Structures are given as structure tokens and as C-alpha cells.
Amino acid sequence: MNPVTRPLLALAATLSVQTLGSMVLTIPSVIAPAVAPSLGLGAERVGVFVGIAYFAAMLSGLASGGWVARVGAVAVSQAAMAACAFGAFVAIAGGSMPLALAAVLVGTGYGMINPSSTSLLGQHAPLSNRGLFFSLKQTGVPLGVALSGLAMPWGLHAFGWQVSTVVAGAACVLLALLLWPAVARLEPRHAQRRTGQDATATPRPGLKAVIRNRSLLRLSMMSFAFAFTQLCFVTFLVSYLKLSLGRSLALAAGILAGAQVISTAARIAWGIVADRWVDPAVLLGGIGLAMGASCVGLSLLPESAGDTAIVLAAIACAATVMGWNGVYFAELARLSNPGEFAAMAGASQFFTFSGSMAGPVVFAEIIRHGGSYSGAYAALALLPAAAGVMMLRQRGRATAPAQ
Q: How far is CA 261 from CA 48, 145, 254, 257, 333, in A?
């Protein structure tokens, strides 16, 4: 552990990386309805891109614990930004193969973000406000989605999707360079190692430890269900609003971006609640139930629904479906031993990203085989609700007095 903590610097670094990583990963979901037909692809095939990306993220996340131990969390964050940038540059070639390679590169970079940021915040965030700090860092996800939703439709019309995608990649390269001076302040041990003054650390196992720990395994299974739901919401909301409810691409993307403001506030609020008033496991259980109800509300929107009703439904989903992550990572850090933050985050993230990978693929297959977007969202509601019940029941058993 570092003798001097720098919570604000750690938060700024991790939030920036999370925001740009989420922005690049969301670009295909935002532009798919307009760009996919010109590439000879259906808009729903964006689910395959997202699925490939998250499969790569699962694997890179497992390896990231060792990488963090060897070169440091800041260096891994820099590598994450470089991978996301290269993925964006490759994607502009278009076609199935370049897009698949781009998905692998972006996913590889995205999988490194949570283990490295969990390590940094685990060392630097105040224990009394850990939930808040992790939730603030996780606001990078809705901020990245909002940035993509606002910038990409404008860039699409002003410059074309290739130029806009290159600009997003260039921003990742710039951030990777700006992070370099932070190594000495956040990880002095690794700064010494770069000058040959420190020995190589040995990473600790992660995946087996999660499987053998019932509390961590339950939390990881919950994250699978929640991430499954979250990625379906983010990936297909624009297509749902445009293709099923008849809204313009600009309006649909704007609703997605606007809902992220509520999501950002919700993440911060859930973090404060978890720190001060409600046990995190109980809070996550309640969020799961609310998540299921929100998905049902979204699915019940008729084509004649007014814009206000659509916005309210999207806000309800954003506050729940995208509001849980900070509380989850804070609870994960609480259940992990110091020095194991990155390894445990990468291992638990394997379950999380399994849901992120499976969700868009399953959702896309429902649409391809004749299902409707509304029906798919209604069926989706069952998964987070079941996970929420699991968390509440298990917490109830843990606190029940002995008979």
C-alpha cells in the first residue's frame, strides 16, 4: 500500500479512462442504424460486435491482475487506452473482418480498465467514502455513452463516421500520454521499478478465489445478470426508438445521451446510500427489482407514445440498469484483501463481462428470428429481478438469528 494517498488524482485518472473507454465501445451502438446498411449489415448485428468485444474483455480482465502487479495500474490504464485507440483506427476500414478485429482490440482495452482502476481506488480512496469514490469513477460509463450519443450523430453528418471514429481514437492516445506523469504520484513503487530499483511482484490468483468464496461468487453472479441487462439497454435503445417507435436517429441518440445524466446522478446517489444508510447487498437486491420493473415499462411503450413518456421510461432504466456498478465494485473491494484488488476485480469481471457479452448476442438473435424489441425488453426484465431476489434472500439468511 502507498504511504501517501492521493484520492482526487486517482479518481481523475480512473474516471477519465473509464469515460473514453466507454465512449469508444458505445460508438457502434449509436451509429449502427445509419451506418450498418451502407456496410451491408443489419443494424441488429451491432450485438455481435459488442459480444466479441466483451469476450475479449473477459480474457484481458483475467490477465490484468498479473499485469497490474508487474507494471502498475497506471501503465495498464495507458495500455487500455492504446488498445481502444487502435480498435477505433482499424474499424474505419469497414467490412466484417476489420470490425471483428476492432471489436477484439476495443474489448481487450476495455477489459483492462476495471482491474487497474479498482487497484488504484482500492489504494487511494478513503475507506469511509469508498462507495462514493467507486460510484464516481463508474459515472464514466454513462458519461462515455452520453459523449458518444451527442458527438457521433453530429460528427456523422458533419464529417462522416470514419473521421469521427478516428477523432475518438486520437483522444484515447492523448489520454494515455497525459497519464504518464501520474505514475510517480500514484504508484511510486512502480516508478522505482522502471528505474530498476524494485523487484517484480507476484500476482495472486483470482478466478479460483472468487469461485470458492460464496459471497464473492454470489456478487459475481449478480453482476452477470445486471450486466446482461445493462448492455441490452445501451446497445439497442437507439435502434428500438428509431425502428420500432419511429423516432429520428438524432432524437433517439439524444434520449440515450440525456438519460445518462440521470444515470450519472443515480450512481453517485447509490454510492452515498451504500456508504451511509443501506447495506450494499440489500441495496443491490432492491436495484435488481427496480431494474426489472423499468425494463417492463420500456417494453410497454406504444408507437403512439409521446416523447415525454419515452424519456421517462429511458430515465427509469438509466437510473437502475446503469446505476449499480459503483456499489458493486465498492462491495467487491470490501470483500477482497489488500493487494488483491486488481486480481479479484479481473476475476469477478469475468462473470460481469460474460453477461455483457451474452446479452447483446441473445437480444440480437431474438430480433433476427422475428421477435420484437418490446418483447425482448419484456423478457429481459426477468433476469435482474431474479438476481435481486437472490441478493435479498441471501442477505436475509446471513442476518437471520440462529434458532
A: 27, 10, 11, 7, 26
